[in-house]
Amino acid sequence: MWKITSLSFLLLVNLLLQRASAETESSVAPMDKAEKEALYSVIRDLVGVRWNGSDLYPDPCGWTQIQGVSCDLFDGLWYVTSLNVGPILDNSLECSSDAKFNPKLFHLRHLKSLSVSDCFSSRRQPLTIPSSDWERLAPTLESLELRSNRGLAGQIPANLGQLGNLNSLVLADNALTGELPVALAGLVRLKRLMLSLNKFSGRVPAPLFAGMAQLLILDLSSNYLTGPLPASLANLSSLLKLDLSNNQFQGSLPPELRKLTHLSLLDLRNNSLSGELPRLESLQDLLLAYNPWGGNLLEFEWANLQNLSTLYLSHMGLRGAIPDAITSLKRLRYLALDGNQLSGGVSAKFSHLPYLTALYLNGNNLSGQLEFPGGFYERMGKRFASWNNPNLCYSTALAIASGINAPCGVPRCERDQQHSTEESKSSQLTENGSPEEHSALWRGIIILVVLL
After folding, report:
1. How many domains does the chain have?
2. What coarse category fits the chief subcellular location reported for this protein (predicted)?
């Protein structure tokens, strides 16, 4: 027993000594001198020449760590692995009015993540992304994010395509221009590619997505991209979210999109697209509004999209009746069919959808009587819209006839109005008496006077 206890004690002491040794090594390990000077230079050119890192942060990877800078040990020395400049926290590094990229950025040879946001906006002359030396970061860089830099202009440098270990490339909300470089096809490990809110133009190169089988998120929204959607999108076999909204894409959807069997979001709003919808049973959010689609909604098998939560089909030139199959989409939360040419009635089954919180049917040619129960109008409030349907009315027999719970902009059905008028007259007669009753009363008064 004593031997076992002694052995356990010795093992515990050994573990504690090893941990203490590791902590001591981490606390006293120096930072590579060239690495430190490169870090100071890069930050100084971004946040301003008055920033004196050597005085404020003599040990930037140790006891005087810089907010937004992360380090790791390599061969007993500290090296920078992450640099984040932007107004994220109160004490975050923020760019100056004359911010710029320092070439020593590419001397940070263990850098895994680089993020610069809300920078370069107040420069008199726009800045461009450095066009060379990115290959020096290729062995380590995994994430590159340049976001919300309104003064960052020019084209995407082709040699970004040499960052073969990159899994996230975010160049969103800048002022970047030109066509998307085919060289980005070399980023075969990408899981996220976000180029939205820029000024990119031209067609999307067909080879761009040839090898991006690991891509999960593709966002090219709010640019000036044109032409048909490339069939090579079907190569993105792992894709979860595809946002191509607010561009100038034209033509029909490529049937190859049906191969995107994991897709949960498809956002194609504000383009010039049309044609048949691919059968994508995994879809949760389908946004096609403001496309000249035309056609009849009945032509699509809505019953196959049982995972749909959002269905946004406004202003698409759609015709025909609202398919009854849409009322069977039990997970539906948001349905917008406004601004089309839909006709026919509105099924009361919409009130049975348990998660529905918004239903927009205004601006169509719908007709007949709304037969939703009063609780439906109360639950939906202003999120139910059915005005500008000239032949549509609502029933007060089912709805609570008040200014709050009645559907806005929809008249009561005529028979309800007639019934209401008759009830009003009946009520008035009850209160004041019928003409015959009034006549009998006066006759009685006259007789009484005569007798007296």
Report:
1. 1
2. membrane
